Amino acid sequence: MNVGDTLAPLEIPVTRTLIVAGAIASRDYQDVHHDASLAREKGSPDIFMNILTTNGLVGRYITDRLGPGAVLRKVAIRLGAPNYPGDIMVLTGTVAAVDGNTVEIRVVGANGIGHHVTGTVTAEVAA
């Protein structure tokens, strides 16, 4: 792996089930993640994905691309445009740094309205 290498993209259909299941699995019971009418009352056009689900999907993206021996050491992400049901989030990654068996990857997750998530992941890969 070399600085500048890109990882194959991953398309994730953003379904209502994924949003609600991710919120429940992470014990995030905020109504904006499961109740469309209450989300609309609060100014959102629909329910939207929580940061813990996004964090898990970013981790999955990196470990799927680096293989079963990869160990995540640091995940630093920032949310942008919400992930609403019916959209597709496309995760992409670029190798930003390599130090021995440690790699830092810049990650972007984009949907139809912009960048949903940006950040970096530091992982240790098998030698």
Give a structural overview.
The structure is a single chain. The chain is 25% helix and 39% strand. The protein is an alpha+beta fold.
Number of strands: 5
Strand order of the largest sheet: 1-3-4-5-2
H/E topology pattern: EHHHEEEE
Which oligomeric state applies?
A: single chain
Q: Could you say which overall geometry the principal axes of the C-alpha atoms support?
A: elongated
Distance between the termini: 11 Å
**Contiguous helical run count:** 3
User: Strand content of the residues, in percent?
Assistant: 35-45%
What is this structure's SSE topology?
Blueprint: E1 6-13, H1 16-25, H2 36-41, H3 51-66, E2 71-79, E3 88-99, E4 102-111, E5 114-124
Antiparallel strand pairs: 1-3, 2-5, 3-4, 4-5
Key terms:
127 residues, alpha+beta, five-stranded antiparallel β-sheet, elongated
In short:
The chain has 127 residues and is α+β, with helices and mostly antiparallel strands. The protein has three helices and five strands; from the N terminus they run E-H-H-H-E-E-E-E.
